[in-house]
């Protein structure tokens, strides 16, 4: 994820509201003027039994940290404890199909299913409102493994071995609990802090799936930059 200090907290909170609530406000008003009898469809429920909550009652949403195809990750602050956290907000407007909705449900289910580990980002809670699904997670302030590799230019054999060991441990833990990440790449590993010896944590389980031992998997689902060359043979 990128790191972008766009605005003060108050402005950032308005950005969150507008991105989820007001993006198509003008279009909706125009439609209502021409179709006064047309009913607005009820909001999509993604998390099932989870209560629909107002994020801003519990968290102060601050600057944007990064964005992906479906979600935007923001810095957020727990209003009670003042703890700094990260909130990945997935706009329901972008969940256009049942498959999209199932993908989000599975991502949440997998993060809840995996045991707490120093090598995997911790999901604090998942909730939703009418506009978005919000995944509140621990904040990793050290940046991406990708960016640190680029900044350093090269790793010593010892340092590279430590990184590789963490990645293998993540794979082992996931497989032990019936999960395949399916999107392992330097961009999906974050350092907990900016120290050289910072813990490295896996993030983004959006493409992950549950599996049963012995199941053959042959679906391509990652970015082309990290595909095995055998896919092109």
Automatic annotation (TrEMBL):
<feature type="binding site">
    <location>
        <position position="88"/>
    </location>
    <ligand>
        <name>ATP</name>
    </ligand>
</feature>
<dbReference type="InterPro" id="IPR011009">
    <property type="entry name" value="Kinase-like_dom_sf"/>
</dbReference>
<keyword id="KW-0418">Kinase</keyword>
<keyword id="KW-0723">Serine/threonine-protein kinase</keyword>
<dbReference type="InterPro" id="IPR017441">
    <property type="entry name" value="Protein_kinase_ATP_BS"/>
</dbReference>
<dbReference type="GO" id="GO:0005524">
    <property type="term" value="F:ATP binding"/>
</dbReference>
<keyword id="KW-0808">Transferase</keyword>
<keyword id="KW-0547">Nucleotide-binding</keyword>
<comment type="similarity">
    <text>Belongs to the protein kinase superfamily. Ser/Thr protein kinase family. CDPK subfamily.</text>
</comment>
<keyword id="KW-0067">ATP-binding</keyword>
<feature type="domain" description="Protein kinase">
    <location>
        <begin position="59"/>
        <end position="233"/>
    </location>
</feature>
<dbReference type="InterPro" id="IPR000719">
    <property type="entry name" value="Prot_kinase_dom"/>
</dbReference>
<keyword id="KW-0106">Calcium</keyword>
<feature type="region of interest" description="Disordered">
    <location>
        <begin position="15"/>
        <end position="44"/>
    </location>
</feature>
<keyword id="KW-0597">Phosphoprotein</keyword>
<comment type="similarity">
    <text>Belongs to the protein kinase superfamily. CAMK Ser/Thr protein kinase family. CaMK subfamily.</text>
</comment>
<dbReference type="InterPro" id="IPR008271">
    <property type="entry name" value="Ser/Thr_kinase_AS"/>
</dbReference>
<keyword id="KW-0677">Repeat</keyword>
<dbReference type="InterPro" id="IPR050205">
    <property type="entry name" value="CDPK_Ser/Thr_kinases"/>
</dbReference>
<dbReference type="GO" id="GO:0046872">
    <property type="term" value="F:metal ion binding"/>
</dbReference>
<feature type="compositionally biased region" description="Basic and acidic residues">
    <location>
        <begin position="15"/>
        <end position="31"/>
    </location>
</feature>
<dbReference type="GO" id="GO:0004674">
    <property type="term" value="F:protein serine/threonine kinase activity"/>
</dbReference>
<protein>
    <recommendedName>
        <fullName>non-specific serine/threonine protein kinase</fullName>
        <ecNumber>2.7.11.1</ecNumber>
    </recommendedName>
</protein>
<keyword id="KW-0479">Metal-binding</keyword>
<dbReference type="Pfam" id="PF00069">
    <property type="entry name" value="Pkinase"/>
</dbReference>
């Amino acid at each position: 994820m990128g790191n972008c200090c766009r605005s003060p907290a108050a402005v950032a909170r308005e950005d969150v509201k507008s991105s989820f609530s007001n993006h198509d406000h003008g279009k909706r008003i125009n439609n209502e003027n021409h179709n006064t009898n047309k009913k607005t469809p009820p909001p999509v429920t993604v998390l099932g039994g989870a209560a629909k909550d107002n994020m801003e009652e519990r968290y102060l949403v601050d600057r944007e940290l990064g964005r992906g195809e479906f979600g935007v990750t923001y810095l957020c602050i727990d209003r009670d404890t003042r703890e700094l956290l990260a909130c990945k907000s997935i706009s329901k407007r972008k969940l256009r199909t049942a498959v999209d909705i199932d993908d989000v449900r599975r991502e949440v289910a997998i993060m809840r299913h995996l045991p707490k580990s120093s090598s995997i980002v911790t999901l604090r809670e998942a909730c939703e409102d009418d506009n978005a699904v919000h995944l509140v997670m621990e904040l990793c302030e050290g940046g991406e493994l990708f960016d640190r590799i680029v900044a350093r230019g090269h790793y010593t054999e010892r340092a590279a071995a430590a990184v590789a060991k963490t990645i293998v441990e993540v794979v082992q833990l996931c497989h032990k609990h019936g999960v395949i990440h399916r999107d392992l790449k330097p961009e999906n590993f974050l350092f907990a802090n900016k120290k050289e010896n910072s813990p490295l944590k896996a993030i983004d389980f959006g493409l992950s799936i549950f599996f049963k031992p012995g199941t053959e998997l042959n679906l391509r689902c990652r970015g082309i930059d990290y595909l095995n060359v055998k896919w092109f043979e």
